[in-house]
Amino acid sequence: MASKTIKRISSGGEFEKKVGYCRAVIANGFVFVAGTCAQGDDIPEDVVGQCESALAAIGKALAEAGASFADVVRVNYYLPDMREFDLCWPLLRETFGDNPPAATVIECNLITPQDRIEIEVTAALAG
């Protein structure tokens, strides 16, 4: 049986320790980035600002894993109010450009009532 190599990437976010997860895991040629909400001390109140913040955190994790948004093959979006999702579309088109991933959007509660969007991605690493 071949040995597995798994690498975990932590962002040091407050919920990683509280909940028991890490920002990303590299395994079997893929990077699995955990659901990510806006990060930092000054979190925007609007969905577009939060989307931008979440994408920045995801981009940092992807870069640390040796990947980029061009390598993302799957994305899941979670929003407490689906009516806000279309406000994010221009930013998402800009982020993924000519490499759009398969996508799912789900309306649900998020970890705090202030969160407007959570984004989860899976990227393929170059083999």
UniProtKB/TrEMBL annotation:
It holds the Pfam family Ribonuc_L-PSP. This is Enamine deaminase RidA, house cleaning of reactive enamine intermediates, YjgF/YER057c/UK114 family. It comes from the Bacteria.
